[in-house]
Amino acid sequence: MYSAWSPSGNTHQAFGISAYTLMADVMGEDHIMADQGSGWFWYDCLYNVKPRYTSKSWRSYDLWNAYYTWVSNANYILAAETTMGGATADVNYVIGQAYAIRAYSYFMLAQSFARTYKGHETEPCCPIYTEPTVAGTEGQPRATVQAVYDQITSDIDKAVELLEGTKTKHISHMGYAVALGIKARIALVMEEWNTAKEAAHEAIKASGCVIIPVDQFKGVNSTKAKNVMWGAEIIADQSGMYASFFSHMDASAGKYGQSALKQINKELYAKMGSEDARKVWWNPADKANENGGYQQEKFKFSDIKTWMGDYVWMRVEEMYLIAAEAECRLGGAEEANAIKDLMALMAKRDKNYKCEKSGTALGVLSSDETGSLLEEIITQRRIELWGETGRIYDLRRLKQGFRRTSAMGWPKDALLGNRPTNDPECYMWVLTIPQSEFDGNVNMDPESDQNPTGDYK
């Protein structure tokens, strides 16, 4: 899940989960690309990848191939569920992870190749496979969004059931706490607030992780940090070198990060208090900023000489933010619990932070301020998880539009002024299906099953 899933021409922007998170982050308004560099991620940032669905060296093929490869591998494991030998706990550990991998893969396919769940349940999503496949296996038609989410929830519930009581053996494994974390993420998209709250709280408890001060996880590059629930421990002979997350992010390393600087939206940065410890994640005084945003210092190589740095895919802080959002949505007495969960995080970030807000109002655009508690929780999520969870996925589920402006620090070429970023119902951020799928699947018709190559049908 940290390896490239594209031909050699695309490996520099196809390093598994961390690449897809970066892709989704630069598609929003908070994660600025100051320049195009060699073009890696720039076309995602400009929403200029969809017409390239016939190529195996572009984003559509990369995501589709990665997630369906993981589904296929999980299906081979699950097919052995009833015949696998060994202790029950060991079998449950293996099979539970396979269900979690399949749930996660279909969840990300749904978020990439269809509009968001709520309000689009009957629309086409992606094919479902639950049995092992071979070269001659007949392809499945596109299932509805609802059918895919039914599969996702069934799989993640099964994963949680089987993994409970098992001991996670490595940080890269999708153990009980991680399965709960994935369940919480899914529930947010489905707007099932009670499920999101309960799964997030149980994930916190089961993980044994704790919120730690910013200075205890500098560089966000170690899976050994006490707040990390899930990630890839990168070892020297498995480093992606230039084709790696930190190569794209760390401008101080003398690597590619200097060519396409990654910066924060200045208006988002300004929402932090003067004592917010997270301010060290960005540098307003960096000479490289010029007229752009503020250069990121959040993600750094742990060892530049050997290209080392672990990939962090889930932190416990996210679970507190999920719980807070869900409780806020539930309203009533749960608002106090939402503030409690929010304060659990912010007490470790800003000693002067207070929150007495209420309500769930959100602006039509992310920059339209309402002053609500929900907006405050989302704002802290945007700051805390910048570069980690993919901003566009939140904008989709929140059904908010966005604007990019020069005042935020965006370069002129990336303002998207002639694109409908203000319309969360458009197809602008729904990827096209790769041509290779139509070439090999008799049950999918490129005329009727392809997603729009433009912003609208």
TrEMBL record:
Main location: membrane
Domain SusD-like N-terminal, chain residue ranges per copy: 50-188
Keyword Zinc-finger on entry: no
Keywords from the named record: Cell outer membrane, Membrane, Signal
Superkingdom of origin organism: Bacteria
Any one Gene Ontology cellular component term annotated for this protein: cell outer membrane
Gene3D superfamilies: 1.25.40.390
UniProt region (Disordered), positions on chain: 438-457
Domain RagB/SusD: 286-452
Subcellular location: Cell outer membrane
CDD domains referenced in this protein's UniProt entry, alphabetically: SusD
Family note: Belongs to the SusD family.
Protein's recorded name: SusD family protein
Species for this entry: Bacteroides fluxus YIT 12057
